[in-house]
């Protein structure tokens, strides 16, 4: 499988660590990986037959690709998506709110328009342009997969696609932003918002711009992405009613805790009178509510459908590895589909 990476940060480098590990070829469902390009915004980019393990080591050691690296290129990511020879675009650039998911949306669209598969963990394109990108993928007969964009690789979209066929999702509620959940837990212990942000940055979980976590934009993007994919909505993060945790004080968090309750940032969507209403807001959760058990970077999603009783998917303490695995699972899905059709990926 020839892969073009757009973005080589926390998630991409963890994925690189998995597929270059000596145990990789013996794992079930594996496939040979060839990397034809690695693009970053400010640390240099490579095009050609990239040695993934060496590229990762170089970036981790020096923070950039050496200007004399033989594969260094001045090509832009858009030019790469249009011109390089690859099977799958792995798009792992940061969430862009003000730019409405761009430039990732254009990079993905250009790959799909060329008949190339796309895998992303970036929720921006799903939140801002799901209908357009899914339609393009369908027309071109390729896959647009994004399992890691919500709940860090937990099999959420896979579950909905495979195991909820024919059900209509009527509503969902979830704790979907790990950074704010960990910050609220830290504040329960008397810590500050700033310390919580620093810890999430050190763990590689915070967004490149952590105000996107704190102000609820990441939650709004995940809410829009889920509503678009699971409920056939056509909303963007700007349509989601949103209140982040920026104005929540340690006193408020601790008062709730003393009363046996916890403050949580909850993402919601529901069908009401033909429309889909979406919100992200801080809620007080009772001690016997499963949402109250979600600690640190954990997540939970409760889905209501018309044919099944509510389902609850929980995830304990995901790390960047979980997100990298979700991307890998999408790649395996593409490799498996190609194998079943007797084609190269
Ligand atoms: N980290 C996590 O736990 C999770 C992350 N995600 C999502 O996955 C994506 C990647 O996350 P993560 O790896 O942590 O992010 P990082 O911020 O660590 O890395 C982002 C990478 O994208 C590069 N980049 C920025 N702009 C562009 C561009 N226009 N074209 C090509 N590359 C670009 C950056 O380059 P440079 O370093 O030069 O700026 C960097 O290499 C994000 O969308 C995030 O929301 C989803 C679930 C969990
Ligand atoms: N910043 C996000 C990372 C995953 O999407 C979070 O904190 O959940």
TrEMBL record:
Q: Where does L-homoserine bind?
A: 207
Q: Under which main EC class is this enzyme filed? A: oxidoreductase
Which Gene3D superfamilies does this one have? Dihydrodipicolinate Reductase, domain 2 (3.30.360.10), NAD(P)-binding Rossmann-like Domain (3.40.50.720)
Q: Please state the Enzyme Commission number of this protein.
A: 1.1.1.3
Which InterPro entries does this chain map to? Asp/hSer_DH_NAD-bd (IPR005106), HDH_cat (IPR001342), HDH_CS (IPR019811), HDH_short (IPR022697), NAD(P)-bd_dom_sf (IPR036291)
Ranges where the Aspartate/homoserine dehydrogenase NAD-binding domain occurs: 7-147
- Keywords in alphabetical order, please: Amino-acid biosynthesis, Methionine biosynthesis, NADP, Oxidoreductase, Threonine biosynthesis
One GO biological process this protein is involved in is: threonine biosynthetic process
The highest taxon in the source lineage is Bacteria
Keyword Ribonucleoprotein found: no
Family (UniProt): Belongs to the homoserine dehydrogenase family.
Question: What is this protein called in UniProt?
Answer: Homoserine dehydrogenase
Q: Which organism is it from?
A: Aminithiophilus ramosus
């Amino acid at each position: 499988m020839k892969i073009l990476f757009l973005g080589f940060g926390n998630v991409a480098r963890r994925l690189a660590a998995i597929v270059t590990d000596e145990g990789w070829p013996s794992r079930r469902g594996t496939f040979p990986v060839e990397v034809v390009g690695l693009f970053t915004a400010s640390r240099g980019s490579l095009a050609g037959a990239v040695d993934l393990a060496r590229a990762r080591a170089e970036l981790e050691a020096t923070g950039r690709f050496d200007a004399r690296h033989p594969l260094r290129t001045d090509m832009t990511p858009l030019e790469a998506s249009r011109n390089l020879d690859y099977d799958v675009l792995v798009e792992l650039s940061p969430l862009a709110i003000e730019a409405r998911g761009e430039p990732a949306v254009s990079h993905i669209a250009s790959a799909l328009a060329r008949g190339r598969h796309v895998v992303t963990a970036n929720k921006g394109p799903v939140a801002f342009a799901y209908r357009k990108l899914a339609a393009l993928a369908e027309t071109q007969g390729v896959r647009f997969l994004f399992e890691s964009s919500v709940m860090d690789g937990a099999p959420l979209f896979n579950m909905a696609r495979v195991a909820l066929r024919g059900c209509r999702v009527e509503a969902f509620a979830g704790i979907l932003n790990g950074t704010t959940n960990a910050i609220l837990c830290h504040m329960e212990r008397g810590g500050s918002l700033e310390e919580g942000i620093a810890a999430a940055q050190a763990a590689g979980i915070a967004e490149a711009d952590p105000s996107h976590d704190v102000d609820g934009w990441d939650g709004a993007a995940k809410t829009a992405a889920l509503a678009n994919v699971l409920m056939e909505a056509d909303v963007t993060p700007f349509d989601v009613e949103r209140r982040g945790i920026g104005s929540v004080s340690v006193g408020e968090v601790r008062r709730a805790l003393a009363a046996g309750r916890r403050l949580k940032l909850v993402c919601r969507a529901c069908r009401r009178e033909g429309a889909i209403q979406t919100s992200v807001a801080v809620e007080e959760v009772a001690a016997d509510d499963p949402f109250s058990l979600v600690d640190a970077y954990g997540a939970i999603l409760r889905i209501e459908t018309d044919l099944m009783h509510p389902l609850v998917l929980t995830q304990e303490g995901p790390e960047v590895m979980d997100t990298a695995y979700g991307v890998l699972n999408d790649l395996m899905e593409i490799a498996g589909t190609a194998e079943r059709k007797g084609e190269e990926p």
